[in-house]
Amino acid sequence: MSAMDINIHYFRLINDLGKQFPALNPAFYVIAEYMVYVLALSALFYWFTRTNENRLMVVCASVTFFLAELFGKVAGLLHFNQQPFAELPNVNQLVQKAVNNSFPSDHTILFFSFCMCFWLFKKKGGIVWMLLAICVGISRIWVGVHYPADVIVGALISIGSALTVYLIVPRLRVVHAILALYEKGEQAILPAKTKSRDL
């Protein structure tokens, strides 16, 4: 089988589960479309714990996402495929989406960028974030808007970007200087009686 045949085969394996188990469709729809708000609120929560490690983690996650998006755009220039619902018949499509290049998955890039950084900083507890990212990736196939290759490439780009950022950004003095300046300004506006414990 060709690479595209393999891609379609595994897409069908996952997407057809929505037809076999329709009761699960609402859950995967919520994961695919609304878990991004949970991620955003979690990043804000970590930021406003007002601990240096958590803030450095959020900075690294944000830089990772920016870097991974750049690599994703380059990958999109090298390969093009539309969403499965636009190319294949009888797709279990749960999400309405404009037809364009779905390679790689932006949702996957976003979640793996942040969740991989959360894992690198939080170690054991961070595995929950990686499981969430995997669930989101699978959900994008389940709802019919991405092929497995879209998700896998997006995840690999983000993981590679996160590892690079994790090794470099925390060692940059300018990052710590900017964080210290921000915290000084924040302290002047919102004094903290005690430092929040690291979560």
From TrEMBL:
Keywords: Membrane, Transmembrane, Transmembrane helix. Pfam families: PAP2. The keyword Membrane applies. InterPro entries: PAP2/HPO, PAP2/HPO_sf, UPP_Pase. The keyword Zinc-finger does not apply. Residues 58-166 form the Phosphatidic acid phosphatase type 2/haloperoxidase domain. The chain crosses the membrane at residues 27-49, 56-80, 103-121, 128-145, 151-169. PANTHER family: AT30094P, SPHINGOSINE-1-PHOSPHATE PHOSPHOHYDROLASE. This is Bacitracin ABC transporter permease.
